[in-house]
Write a structure and sequence with these properties.
The chain is mainly α. The protein has helices at 2-47, 52-82. It is rod-shaped, with a radius of gyration of 20 Å.
């Protein structure tokens, strides 16, 4: 019984570390990607203002594509936080 409680605590602590890494690194990488893309957009808009409507549509599409892996990672992290399938191994 005592070993089971220790294993559960160990799995939960490692899961929390994994969740924080998934969310933290995903947020940082999404922010860096969006900032680099928006910097290029502003550079292109300053050079050729007549292309702003065309570039703006592509920027919004790419923002969604850059954010998609982060949102999927948050979903997986929440699954591990609230319905951890690793805890079923111990029981």
């Amino acid at each position: 019984m005592e070993n089971t409680v220790q294993y559960l605590a160990m799995i939960q602590s490692y899961t929390i570390i994994g969740i924080s890494l998934i969310i933290g690194l995903g947020a940082v990488s999404a922010c860096i990607g969006i900032s680099l893309m928006c910097c290029s957009f502003l550079n292109g808009a300053a050079r050729q203002p007549e292309l702003i409507p065309t570039l703006q549509g592509k920027v919004f599409l790419l923002m969604g594509l850059i954010d998609a892996p982060f949102i999927i990672g948050v979903g997986l992290a929440m699954m591990f936080a609230f319905a951890n399938p690793l805890l079923a191994v111990i029981k």
